[in-house]
Amino acid sequence: MDFEEIVHIYSKHIYQTAYLYTKNRQAAEDITQDVLLSFYKKQDQFRREASLKTYLTKLTYNRCHDYKRSLQNRTHEWLEKFTFRSKQSVEKQVTDKARKQDILNAVIALPIIYREVIILYYFNELKGREIAEVLQCSENTVHTRLKRAKDLLSKGLSEWEVTIDEEATGRRN
Question: Residue 60 is part of a domain; what is its CATH number?
Answer without folding.
Answer: 1.10.1740
